[in-house]
Amino acid sequence: GQVPLQSPQHVEVHVVNTNFTLSWSHPGKEPGVTFSAEYQGPDGGGTAWQWLPGCHNVSGTRCDFSLAISEFYDSHWLRVRAQRAGHVSPWSHTVHMVPAHEAQIGPPGLELQPTNGDIKIKISPPEANQDKKMWLDDLSFKYNLVYWENSSDSQLRSKSVFPVDTVDGLAPDTTYCFRVQANLPAEAKEGQFSPTCCVRTTRKVNELLCATNLRVLGLNMDFHLHWDSQYKQPVSYSVQYLIGYLKRLNDDHSGKWLEVPGCGNVTGGRCRVSPVLTTTGFYYLRVLARGQGHQCCLSAEVKVDPLKTNEIGPPGVKLDISDTLLHVQISPPGGPGNELMRDNYVLSYRILYWKNSSNDEEEAKVKELKQTIGTIAGLEPRTLYCVKVQAVSEAYNKSSAYSQQECTQTPAEKSFPLVILATFTVALVAVLLLVVPLVFVLYQAYSKIKYVFFPSCQPPLNIEGFGGQLCPSPYLSTPEEPIENCSIIESMVTYEGNQVDFKDYKHSKQSSRDSGNYSNDDNTSGSKDSAEMLQKEII
């Protein structure tokens, strides 16, 4: 009988971009053996096994099933078996696959163009012009260019490039070969290299006219571009800039360079470029040189990251002394009106202070500050101290030069117990001088008020009913006293042996005379008439 068919072995899945290939091996060499594969979709055990399109009844040990996969982030399962003349082998072991995890980055496209001694490159991303893509964001690719001189003893050189870029510094009339790969650092994936392309460089025209050695110097966000020139004839320079993110795009940015304001016709070797370096990110600068007879030459580009290129200047320092405390006030580098420095750098300050004495070789001490105002304590009296300050940016690993040193002398030592005693004595005397007269005035006022409104003497009980006031106040006006008219009869009348004594009337008259309130000489006749009438009534 026939030997039973063996299962396929070493089943593997290969994914490049959206191209899927299934491969395996088979120990049998019998003719007429074919192979078929099945797969399960993302639902796993919830779906039945299906024939894998492109991998049914194939005679080789490889098949392409790219059309069968459309979900790149879901799980898939695959298996293969052999078959011959109605006989089938057992299924191979099942292979699990998540397309996006298995996929490799395919080779990008590469175009080369020699330009005035340099090579201009243009890279097209993997899966360019494809509707079905594994990599959705073309701008996330980072390109690594490898190139070498096409000679027997050349060495490989590599550099990170943008989709449209220029390779300079090449020898003229020399053939160079290039290849490039696309990488995704965020996913730790390195792509396949493109096929090798070679091109021959040309000679640079007007090479002596070109500006060379471009460099940007910045202090407190004020930037200047410097360059060198070997040209001996009259020449003018124009500085151009390109916003950095434009180079990340796949489009050609050669027409998007702009002239820096104020740097359109420069005859020297520097120009201020701060007007265009106003935001975070990065920029590119280059210099176009123009000579006589319409000659021109475009320099190499220089990349500028303002916050990294900028140098921090020294801060300002102001000192104020009080007893043994030294107050340090710091002005931020660039001044308080420098908004770019204030908005982009978080600065701390390092204070260096020491005794400025020829007899004292004490080392300088350091105090760190997060704010612009600090105090140094524990200083000796009548001693000259000097201070200088440095600004530090931890985020950018930058530090300024130290400021110019400022010096001040602490005052002489004071005897604090004597000062306290003298202060207390002066305060006590001042309080006494103020309080004693005030107490005297208040007491006098109190006595007068009490004497006027609350006198100490009271009227006798026998005249309380009159409501009179026997102790008139010298400060109150005395009302006019009313005068009562009285008549007094001095007679002794006897009626039927009973004697009537008018002594009481006489006593009343005498009392009235004594008081001066009950006598009246003008009314004597009236009194007599009254007495006669009384006697008649008695009779």
UniProtKB/TrEMBL annotation:
Chain ranges passing through the membrane: 416-443
Keywords: Membrane, Transmembrane, Transmembrane helix
Regions of compositional bias (Polar residues) in chain numbering: 513-528
Fibronectin type-III domain segment(s): 7-103, 104-204, 311-413
Region (Disordered) residue spans: 506-539
GO-annotated molecular function: type I interferon receptor activity
Biased composition (Basic and acidic residues): 529-539
Pfam families: Interfer-bind, Tissue_fac
Signal peptide coordinates: none
GO cellular component, one term: plasma membrane
Name of this protein: INAR1 protein
Origin species: Grallaria varia (variegated antpitta)
Gene name of this polypeptide: Ifnar1_1
